[in-house]
From TrEMBL:
It comes from Pyrobaculum ferrireducens. It catalyses: oxaloacetate + acetyl-CoA + H2O = citrate + CoA + H(+). One of its GO terms (cellular component) is cytoplasm. Keywords: Transferase, Tricarboxylic acid cycle. The active site is at residues 256, 311. This is Citrate synthase. Pathway: Carbohydrate metabolism; tricarboxylic acid cycle. Its EC number is 2.3.3.16.
């Protein structure tokens, strides 16, 4: 049997995430994602994904305190981030920084507790790594806003150097909850595949960040933002899309391996969030552009099973939050780490080395010809 792209192959049983395609619903640990997005926070959702249940208020406070205590990475990581050339891609700096978090730690323990502690350290440090690099490359000093109450507030504050408004923090928190987990996507699979060798959490998350970078996966939220800029106005949507399709190009923020019969369920919340932010800023340009793209691309490509995905509206929301375009991708990672850690921990509980196979289609029986006798 042969499954290109492993399409439809079940690689593990899970209690983390369920995607109900029939009813266009996503559940984290049995909870409707829309309800979580509207009522919960990134930290609460990370706790839910990792420990399998919602925390009590004391548990949540303890969890947040543990994260708070390890937000600032060790000095050697700061130095690595500071030594990155300003032209580096922020996602590459993040990947390198997360990899460097492993240096100097005793990694001999591979039990669930040890991996969860590492997951906490990685999750907590990611916002600082991204923000510090961004500030340094723009000639500003990194900040470590110790007073920030949440992951979302810390991240926005550390990137901008000034305290975000509660509404901005809430908007980012919704985005972080929405992006936190999505079943066996490529980066989660990569994390699990690496962890299946019994490599540690740092190795698994570093590899997952590498996977997320690709434009067919997380990198699409940067390409979608660039598309919005390039298209520029709703009047240009039709001609721009037609031109891309005529050149055989894919439209970023559209298409999905799972969602072939309708849009990504996460869009219901994201469309509303994008509209709210637009209204708050009195600037509807970006949300209207995304809506027009959604309408036109769907009219052209829905018969092929192509609908908008999360990255289209994520690009709009991040723009309204004032994030530079190339931070869209590491911001995704700052959230998705919650899902990666959950999958690594779950898989470790009944670990089996991941080792698929392939079908050989090359020649056999060729004779070695010494180099001086080759034509
Ligand atoms: C958070 C996330 O990771 S969500 C995904 C983010 N990625 C993107 O937005 C990038 C653009 N989208 C894509 O490249 C794809 O839709 C993927 C990779 C996400 C999913 O693709 P698959 O399920 O493997 O679909 P596949 O690649 O087989 O495409 C099927 C057909 O649709 C076309 N197609 C798929 N996506 C698009 C798109 N965005 N624009 C135009 N055509 C598309 C393909 O060219 C192919 O056409 P063909 O049958 O005429 O050759
Ligand atoms: O599930 C996928 O293949 C991609 C995706 O939408 C995600 O990772 O959020």
């Amino acid at each position: 049997m042969y499954f290109p792209g492993l399409e439809g192959v079940v690689i593990k049983e899970t209690k983390i995430c369920h995607i109900d395609l029939e009813n266009s619903k996503i559940y984290y640990r049995g909870y409707d994602l829309e309800e979580l997005a509207l009522n919960s926070s990134f930290e609460e959702v990370a706790y839910l994904l990792w420990f399998g249940r919602l925390p009590s208020s004391r548990e949540l406070e303890e969890f947040k305190n543990r994260l708070r205590s390890v937000r600032k990475p060790p000095r050697h990581v700061e130095e690595i981030v500071a030594s990155a050339p300003p032209s580096a891609e922020p996602i590459d700096v993040l990947r390198t920084g997360v990899s460097a978090l492993a240096l100097g730690e005793d990694l001999s323990a591979r039990d669930i507790e040890a991996e969860l502690r590492r997951g906490e350290r990685i999750t907590a440090a990611m916002p600082y790594i991204v923000a510090a690099f961004h500030r340094l490359r723009t000639g500003q000093r990194p900040v470590d806003p110790a007073e920030a109450a949440s992951h979302a507030e810390y991240y926005l504050w550390a990137v901008r150097g000034e305290r975000p408004t509660p509404r901005e923090v809430r908007a980012l928190d919704v985005m972080l909850v929405i992006y936190a987990e999505h079943s066996m996507n490529n980066s989660a699979f990569t994390a699990v595949s690496v962890a299946s060798t019994l490599a540690d959490m740092y190795a698994a998350v570093t590899a997952a960040i590498a996977s997320l970078k690709g434009p067919l996966h997380g990198g699409a939220n940067v390409d979608a933002a660039k598309m919005l800029e390039e298209v520029g106005s709703v009047q240009r949507v039709q001609s721009w899309v037609d031109e891309q399709l005529a050149k055989g190009r894919r439209i970023p923020g559209f298409g999905h391996r799972l969602y072939k019969k309708g849009p990504d369920p996460r869009l219901r919340v994201l469309r509303l969030l994008a509209r709210d932010l637009a209204a708050e800023r009195g600037d509807f340009r970006w949300v209207e552009l995304a809506e027009k793209l959604e309408e036109y691309v769907t009219s052209k490509l829905s018969q092929k099973g192509i609908y908008p995905n999360t990255d289209l509206y994520a690009a709009v929301i991040f723009r309204y939050l004032g994030l530079p375009v190339d931070l869209n991708l590491p911001t995704f990672a700052v959230s998705r780490v919650a899902g990666w850690v959950a999958h690594v921990v779950e898989y470790r509980q009944s670990n089996r080395l991941i080792r698929p196979t392939e079908r050989y289609t090359g020649p056999l029986g060729l004779r070695y010809v010494p180099i001086d006798q080759r034509g």
